[in-house]
Amino acid sequence: MKDILGNALKDYFYGNNPDTLFTETSISEEDELPLPYLFRSFEEMPLLEQTALKNCRGKILDIGCGAGSHALWLQQEGKKVWAIDISEGAVEIAQQRGVANVRQLDIMAMEGEKYDTLLLLMNGTGIFGTLQQLPFYLNQLKKLLAEKGQILIDSSDLQYMYDTTEEGGIWVPRNHYYGELEFTMTYKGETSQKFPWLYLDAHLFKEIAEENGFTFEVLEVGVHFDYLAKLTLSTHTHP
């Protein structure tokens, strides 16, 4: 796959004529993703992200670290943090910005490591892709969790993106869950392949998390149908 995001991050960081990065989904028009936002400081982060970072403890894995803003803050706070991203360019920039432990890696390829906090931010449920894949990802995250570890993850309920009925319901797709989207990114005339990206409402996420051996708690609710959740292993779960 083309490293659209990585190319944009490199241009911005190195001052190489950065252009506008656009995202588009199966239910929304092309939208601009401001590059400076991907380099934001703690003060510029939304409350959900600040709360997540403040709740990180022990050995931390920042999954999908992007340009490394979250990992950098944790590092500056003296936390033990490791970071991964599938984008080669993102990993390069995170390294250049000073993230000490960062690797280009897919979370599904990790084995034999244990962390006290798994951190997935900026719609962390996105990497699950589809509802069908969610149990496989939860099982993999479970293997990476230390005994009393936690997963801190954010998402949004996309109900607001759909038309409402007179009765107050919403018109949703018949053939798939309404939070299952297809995404593309475009930068300097190059467009990525479509990739699945999952937004999960908290009720459904709780239900599926509990079915897969987790307890589920909402730690913070954002201003725009978004929320931060904490998942921990159920005490009655056996490996």
Overview of the structural elements:
The protein has six helices and twelve strands. It is α/β, with parallel strands linked by helices.
According to DSSP, the number of beta strands is 12
How does the helix and strand content classify structurally? alpha/beta
Distance between the termini: 35 Å
Mean pLDDT: 93
- State the shape: globular
In percent, how helical is the residue content? 10-25%
Question: How much beta, percentage-wise?
Answer: 25-35%
Strand order of the largest sheet: 5-4-3-6-7-12-11
Can you give keywords for this protein?
239 residues, alpha/beta, seven-stranded mixed sheet, five-stranded antiparallel sheet, 12 strands, 24% helix
Layout of secondary structure:
Elements lengths: L3 H11 L6 E5 L2 E6 L13 H9 L3 E5 L5 H8 L3 E6 L2 H9 L5 E3 L10 E6 L13 H11 E12 L23 E8 L2 E2 L3 E4 L3 H10 L2 E8 L4 E8 L6
Parallel strand pairs: 3-4, 3-6, 4-5, 6-7
Antiparallel strand pairs: 1-2, 1-8, 7-12, 8-9, 8-10, 11-12
Helix pairs in contact: 1-4
In brief, what are we looking at here?
This protein is α/β, with parallel strands linked by helices and 239 residues long. The chain has six helices and twelve strands.
